[in-house]
Amino acid sequence: xxxxxxxxxxxxxxxxxxxxxxxxxxxxxxxxxxxxxxxxxxxxxxxxxxxxxxxxxxxxxxxxxxxxxxxxxxxxxxxxxxxxxxxxxxxxxxxxxxxxxxxxxxxxxxxxxxxxxxxxxxxxxxxxxxxxxxxxxxxxxxxxxxxxxxxxxxxxxxxxxxxxxxxxxxxxxxxxxxxxxxxxxxxxxxxxxxxxxxxxxxxxxxxxxxxxxxxxxxxxxxxxxxxxxxxxxxxxxxxxxxxxxxxxxxx
Length: 251
What we know:
alpha/beta; 36% helix
């Protein structure tokens, strides 16, 4: 098997979410409030939310007292975020222009894998105020009943189940960030969740590897998972992670 290309190069996958923007916003989980609140250390904190999607993290950050600018390239995702009253600037992070603005916090909420890390980190460093921080947020949801392994007996007929965790490459990402002149602190929050069968199937239907399947395969996978899960739904654990980074190198 050929080596898997980095996620940020796989533009077809990166740009697959717009078609399901409303479902994405409804069923993707919010981040544990304990992690979000720790990032907003007072009213008026200026935050840049990169790859903001439908504004899930942006809305939570605003509710915690932050002033948020959201950057999102997909017009359909941006439209959903804008409808929430979030200030959205439609662009990739690579093309986005800060226009002499500086921020106390730059957030990538489950989006850092969609940028080329080294140029992105240089740009983050250039827009952070002294003492500012970078934070990577991730919800990491694993079914426990049925187990992930049991569901993957079906998933594996349609998608590469070994490629699931582009948001879970914690050590690799941390090493890149530290090499770019940041000190790193990892914060976790574990949640026990339950989904009805319909809720779980709608959630996983928003994953990029499912979105790339043709409609017939999507429907067949959904039907087989529904039969396997049955009426009891899915118990799951969210091992949510915040990687909080402070610049240490001279700028």
